[in-house]
Every structure is written in C-alpha cells, then in structure tokens.
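--- STAGE predict ---
source: upstream dedup step, 1 unique chain passed
mode: sequence only
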Amino acid sequence: MKIAISTESTADLTKELIEEFDLKTIAYEIQLGDRCGLDGEITSGEIIEFVNQTNTLAKTAAVNEYRFNEYFENLLKDYDAVIHFSLSSELSVTYNNGVRAAKNFKNVYMVDTRSLSTGIGLLAIYAKTLVEQGLDAEEIYQACLRRVPYIQASFELKRLDYLHKGGRCSGLALFGANLLKIRPQIIVSNGKMIPGKKYRGKFDHVVKNYCQDVLDTFNNPDLTLGFVTYTTADDEIIKTAKQYLLDRGFKRICVTRAGGTITSHCGEDCLGILYINDGK
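--- STAGE serialize ---
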C-alpha cells in the first residue's frame, strides 16, 4: 500500500524536512492589503514588514473544501491512501473542510492534531516513520491519534502587539505588559491557545526560564525529535533554546522559522520548543 503523508503550511516545516520525509503539503492563503498569495509565497518577513508599515494585520484564509477535493484527488492518482494532519479544529475551520472533502474519497484520513506549527509536523514525521515500517493506513492513523494528546506546543512572546491587533488582548493589558516588560507564554491546550506563565526581563533571560519550565513541566519527552521554532529571534537566543534540548538528551533537534500563517497571529520575537511528551 502506497501511503501519502500530508500536512499544511501551518506545520512550519522547512523545504529540506518536507523533502527528507517526502511530505505533501497544502498552503493557506494570506492577504496583505490588496495583495493575495499562498503561505510560503508570502513570507513571514513580508508579513512583519507589512504590519510595521500599515499597523494592520495580515488576513489568513483556511483551506476550503473545494481546494481539498482537488488536492486529495491529485494525490490519489499516485497513492492508495492519504493521511492528512491538520491545524487544530479549535483554531481553524480547515480540519472540518478537509473532513467534508475526505468523504468523497476512499482511504483519506483526517487527523485533527489539536496543535499548531511544528506540533503538527511532529505527528506527520512520526507517521512517515510508520509508513517506512510497513504499517497500513488505518494502523498509522490510529497510532497518530493516540499521540495527539501528548504534543507539547508552546511559545514565548516578547510583546503582545499582534495579539492585541487581533483582538486577543485588551489595550490595557498591552500597555501594562509593555510597561512592566512582561513576556507571556502561550500554551496549546485542548486544541486552544491559552496563556501560560508570565515572565519579566530581557528576552534572552526569559527564553532560558521558559525552556527550563517547559522541560520541567512536560518532563517525559520522546527524545527522538524536538523543534525550536521562531518567527524572529537573535541567533544566540535560538542557540540557547537548542542547547536546552541538547542537554535534555534529544537525539535530533530541528530549527525552523514559522511561516506566514503562524507569524500573522503571533508576530515578531516569538520562539517555542516543541516535542511529543509521551516518552516513546
């Protein structure tokens, strides 16, 4: 059985990782004023520049049912089954659109990862390793569903500007956070983005505390693979986050830059460490 492992641009995987694991992807749409394009064609850097110049957020559009129909139809010309890993259904209608499209085909499996960014990528890569072990599509699908609750996805933000522009925090909260140099942690829990700990001080020091707290709290990691994912960050800060994962014993650590969809919601100076916390 020839199985395609598929995901979305929101998985924030590099071209090298997509090629290495032979993953198929479908992109979200992004609008910058009058300009429209696909996530990846419009980069995170262009989004940040647009927001800085216009004080207006980029708009993102979920993958609709029509595009999924076309996408799955094309994949099934070369594959016997498709397992697709989608952004959390609590954050986007993309998963539900994919489910409706999947009903038009045999052997298309939709996985609601209940996660975002490289949290999605972790599951997709895991699925590919199961394909290489010779499991069939149903077995892979069920194995991945069992791991969904254990995805540790969290981020540290330097500022709340983008969340404020998107209506996710008040002007008063923004003012207080900036005045007191509060750096909020965002955790993905039950498929939703919720506030975690609040740190204060310089961002490099905050990232150290954030990494240590995450590894102490989610302390049963699968050490096979971990991610450091960021929108913008100094090289030294990225190196620091990677070192925490190395010290914890991760065998492989991949550094990726968040794509346009994630950047449009989280903004500049956002960094996270992500891994599966089931110790397998």
